Amino acid sequence: xxxDLELIKRLQNQDNMALSLIYDKYSAALYxxxxxxxxxxxxxxxxxxxxxxxxxxxxxxxxxxxxxxxTWSYRIAKNLALNSMxxxxxxxQNEDLSVYKDKDQEESEIDLLQLSGSLKQLEPxxxxxxxxxYFNGLTHREAHEEMDVPLGTFKSYxxxxxxxxxxxxxxxxxxxxxxxxxxx
Amino acid sequence: xxxxxxxxxxxxxxxxxxxxxxxxQIEVENILREDAExxxxxxxxxxDFESMAFENAITPPSHIKNNIFDTIQNQSVTQPDSIQVKNxxxxxxxxxxxxxxxxxxGSGWLYTQWQQSKNDMQLVxxxxxxxxxxxxxxxxxxxxxxxxxxxINNPNTLKLVLNGNQVSPASxxxxxxxxxxxxxLLNPQGLATLDSEHTYQMWAxxxxxxxxxxxxxxxxxxxxxxxxxxxxxxxxxxEPAGGNDHPTVERLIANVLL
Lengths: 184, 258
Hints:
By secondary structure, chain A is an all-alpha fold.
């Protein structure tokens, strides 16, 4: 998964077409993260919108030497989502009388938010660790408390989880390669 | 910090997740720039996280994309537009203000010019009136002089000089007599000046009787006198102001025979 630097350059030159292509490429991945952090579709849609507007406006502050474009976009999306969760007006909104309706909605959303893919093949505690920091936007410090393990242990969970994940990807790639070979 | 301990601290993961403070972030960025192997390792983590995100992607509703583009379009179009409108408005205001100032200056200038012209006109008018009056006077003078000249220059005119006698030896007067047209003109300028209670009077002698020819009013260049038929001589006497019915013979100053 290499970044298309040409496309990013066009985005930095305020090319609408480039933004459209970048949206097509990254919006679903970013929306998956935003929705898992705020667990509310309407809010998540607003934040996704904000995220891309910010990507458009701040595109010049992205530096490909510091990391991948998706990493940069992910940080924007995560920060906007976390900020919206912390904003007091949003908290008050959650305390209105339609709490039961919200609960129903939230439950159905939680089904939707079930993680899938290679992550499912990891051990539950590895899965949980990655989910907390990556998809729920918790910091290492918050997440290790959430999982009730020491910070050091939590960090090694993340490391091991990523390592396992890489192995799974490689295995999948190998299988894919075999299938392609067979097809040819 | 060596390479492995950096890997162990999990700081790269935290950097990726945006959990670090700005100082730590800069520190990690410096380390990554200098250490190619760590950089490659970080790139692997990035790829792992990215793959995970793509595997758990959720397609957002399609209207979001439209909303984003609407917002961007509005930002890029309306903002400069409103600035332009503002600019245009202020430009119009500036133009209007300058025009107003120009109008004011112009009006002021025109007003002073108008006042000046009015004064000039008045002056010219006065001068014209003055000239007109002078022309009238000159015309009258000319007519009078012309009349005299015609009369004097007439071949039938006789020029008679009345010299003062012992009563007024310095006096002299000139009469122009035209028997054909029956006119008499008198130039009294040579007569000595009298006090305000006396005047000269002219008389015609007809068969021993003195007949009044008229009072010679003072300060005249030329006076038309009454022509008397059959006059034998012309006489000038000094009489009380306003003239007399009969001549005061003792005060006869000049006479001439016709």
